[in-house]
Fold:
Amino acid sequence: MAQQKTILRALAGETLPTPPIWMMRQAGRYLPEYRATREQAGDFLKLCYNPELAAEVTLQPIRRYGFDAAILFADILLLPQALGADLWFVTGEGPRLSTITTPEELGRLKPVADIHETLNPVYETVKILAQELPKETTLIGFAGAPWTVATYMIAGQGTPDQGPAHALKAANRPLFEGIMHRLTEGTIAYLSKQIEAGAECVKLFDSWAGSLQGDDFTEFSIKPMQRITAALKEKHPGIPVIAFPRGAGTKYAGVHGATGADCVAVDDGVDAVWVADHVQKDGCVQGNLASSHMVTGGQGLVDETRRICDALSGGAHIFNLGHGITPEADPANVQLMIDTVRGG
Structure:
């Protein structure tokens, strides 16, 4: 049955007449059923660490829309929390973390071997999903890529330009590299456990890769993803990996080869025709409808969805947004997108 799953066929390089489809943040605040379950959980972190409820919100968009894949409901900052950072969420503002900006603070982080005690509820969620998802639906595990997670750990929160991480990288490169190494090894261990629990492929989200310039893009986005991909494939032969260095622009070209990933997800800052010519020639691509169409809907959504499908019809393609769906999106527009992809 696994070989019949359309997502896995696309990840293996097969060109399909209709691209399989899923959506980043497909379990989220735009859905009333998600909001109800989150309220039941009490808060966002409690939802992440409640396997039954986390599985429920993962399943909700599958029941409603019949996506070809479900992505584990979790958060990229659970790994730094498991390493010993304090993590909390401020309503309306987002995550906050205790910062890692000195060798002493790095030294107080837990060894990678000790992260699983905190993360075991996540693995339990994966096990539930592996049992409860429809047989045709692929289960995707995920983690934040080291650079993106490091930017939050160093700043203590999200920042517009990732300035604190860039400043630490310039001022104390050995310390910065130590943080990156701990996150890289932690990500390998975390994703490996997700795979053991039942994830059929995994995705690395490097949401802030676009702020890395010159050689730093290679050193701190591409190379960590390559290390993680190689380690996972050595331990779990055949596991597909999706790499998403968001904001890479023309540097998306060559990411397949440089990372070893089976699929490169692209944001909506690059045109699908360019992607076909420069990225898809190397393997499966995922993307890249602007998430704003989930708010505006209408003929513009239909036309752009068809244009992307046509542009990427000559190779392996997984249809997705160029970034996660936003809370103000209209659920009806999601259905319109799906109907357009599947109905032409």
